[in-house]
Sequence to fold (81 residues):
Amino acid sequence: MEFRGLIVKRRFGSGTKSDHFAVWLDQPTGPPLVLRRPGESAYEDSLLNGLVGKNVICHGTLTRNNTLFVDDIRVVDRVGD
Fold:
């Protein structure tokens, strides 16, 4: 599936043992999605952290809890690109 939006970093799991700052995809329509790369740490991913503040198009698998496991990601000038 294809998803578009702005990469941001915000708190995830506040008040739980999983509390941490995660990388999210803020979509122009639809809920924000937590981004993960298969095989990478849920707590620290230097590639995704480096994309914070960028508009992207990404492809991947969406889980029921709004986590997107990213297969590929591409930076674009605007979300509409």
